[in-house]
Amino acid sequence: MARTRRPLAALIPLVAFLAVLVPLGAGPAHAESNGGVKVMPLGDSITDGFNVPGGYRVGLWQKLTAGRYKVDFVGSLFNGPSGLGDHDHEGHSGWTIQQIDDNVVNWLRTQNPHTILLHIGTNDIYGSNPAGAPARLSTLIDHITAQAPSAELFVATITPLGFLDSTVRAYNAAIPGIVQSKVNAGKRVHLVDMYSALTPADLADGVHPNAGGYDKMADVWWRALRAVPGSIGNPALAATGSGAHGNGSAARAA
C-alpha cells in the first residue's frame, strides 16, 4: 500500500506550493474600460494566468478585437502583458469554489457584469472534500444568478490535471446536469466544455496551461460567447461605437 501512495504524496507539496503562488504583476484593478459590454473572467489562478501572464484573457481579447466587439473586462484584480487591452479580472490564485462564493456577491454589486466566465473547481479537486465540489458549484451558481439575474453566466468544465484525472472527470461529469437544472429554472446559464479542448500536453506544470493551452481556452470561450446572442454585444454596432448589450438566451453553449 505504501507504494501506491507515494506518487500522490510526492505531488502534495508541489500542489500546495502552486496553489498559493500569486503570479508576478497581479494587483488591484485599474478599472480600464473601453465602454463596451462588461465581461467578468471569474475563477482561480487559471483565470489569472499562472505561468503565462494574462492567460486565456490575452487570446480572447485579441479575438474580440479582431471581431470588432467592444468588451470591458471587469474585476478587482489586474495583470497581464501590455498587449492585453484590458487587464481587469476576478481570477484568485489558489482559491476554491467556497472562497469565490464567499466574495462573489460583493464583486457583482461593484462590477455589475453583463457576462461572466466561470472556471472554478481545480483547487477543490485536491482539497479535503472533492466529492462535495458539485454541490458547492451549484450553490455558487445560485448566488450569482440571484445577484445578477440578467447576466449571462458561462460555466466551464475545468481543464485537465496531470494527476487525479478520475476525480476531475467525476466533477466535470456533474456540471452539465447542474447547468441544465438552472436553465430549466429559467436562469441565463450556459455550459462550456473546456475539459475536452485540452490534454495533459497543454499543461506547463501538471496544473496550469502553457501558452498553447491558454490559447485553446480562449478559442473555447470565444465560440461559446458567439453562440449566445447579446453576451458580447453586436460587432456591427461596436464598429460604430454604440456597443449595445442586447438580450442573451438561456441556451447551452459548447
Automatic annotation (TrEMBL):
Signal peptide: 1-31
UniProt xrefs under Pfam families: Lipase_GDSL_2
Alphabetically ordered keywords of this record: Hydrolase, Signal
Domain SGNH hydrolase-type esterase: residue ranges: 42-215
InterPro entries (UniProt xref): Ester_Hydrolysis_Enzymes, SGNH_hydro, SGNH_hydro_sf
Gene Ontology MF, one: hydrolase activity
ATP-binding is among the record's keywords: no
Protein name: SGNH hydrolase
Species the sequence originates in: Streptomyces javensis
